Fold this sequence. Notes:
66% helix, disordered C terminus
Amino acid sequence: MAVVADVGVIDGMSLKRRLAIADRRSKMRALALVLPLLLFIVVSFAIPIVYFLTRTVYDPSIAANMPRTVAALEAWSGQELPTEETYAALVADLKDAQKSGSVALIGKRLNYEINAIRSKIMSSGRKVEKIDSPPYKEKMIAADKVWADILTWVKIKETGHTLNDSYVLSVFDHERDVEGNIVSVPENRAVYVAILLRTFYISVTVTLLTLFLGYPVAYVLANSPERIANLLIILVLVPFWTSLLVRTTAWFVLLQDNGPINDTLIASGIATEPWHLIFSRFGTIIAMTHIQLPFTLLPIYAVMKGISPAYMRAARSLGGGPIYSFMRVYFPLTLPGIGAGCLLTLILSLGYYITPALVGGPADQMMSGVIASAMNQENNWGKASALGAVLLFSTLILYFIYNKLVGIDKVKLG
Length: 414
């Protein structure tokens, strides 16, 4: 009697199991190849970003250095000055802070909320050493009038938690009042929403200008003979060979009152006196448009290059006019490139710092400039991280909108 071997089994192992093992080994090899890059991204990018963003809501400066005062203020109504017991807790906390050298940290944190209070906190820290008996309230107010201001106590209570939302509220021009309600800051302190809107306005304007200028050039590149197209693409790529700082400095020279542009305008009779182009919104937008143009143009060109000329010929042969055929057939096919190029330019424009700083005026500074100022001049990492978080989530929202509206699977003819 003949024995028929199971064709699904080789050396005692099923073919399905062998395929699963081979597939698992292939995935492990792929992971091993990607792992160094993944670790580099996590260590050098992801972890610093996450740590930076935690500073948006994490700040133990007051909670760690004024624990007794923060605990005493928990039941405070905010309608009048705190009780004698709260002032006694303040004296004890300031004495400990003076010994540990953390009075400056307390003053620095409260100075973010109340201007010029840091020196008063430092002075109180030195004077508190002489206060060793009641009445603490009377003696602290005599040491500095800042302790008779209810606002001081409101801010201590507001920032007295390790996790608090004061930085987040401040970047939206809001704060908490005595009762803990979220309210708008006074008009003379409301600046961040205006800066955020200005950042989006400039970025959107630059994006639209690069699209308006780049789309026809991309069309010419995609439909020109190869010899001419290669020359043109080299000209498009030339700006990438020059640093951003050099290109911005070049615009700084061109836009000056006695620069080449104004000299040409005056010599041609178009202007009788120099136009104010430098340190203006116009200069910022023009310089950013020049720098960002290739970033919008190249994705559009890449998509156009893959569109067969047969589509337009077919549309024309079916009776469609040039404009109708272009708008109904060709233009929809380029939407993925338009979306990718515009999204890239918009995201990059939101983070611009050098160009607005060099060619823009005080009223043209964007969010990145404020973040840099918060870190380098104010040393306020909490506010900087809150502003950075706003830009980050704005970018994520823009990408989500792009993916939903302009994704390749959303593009249809007709």
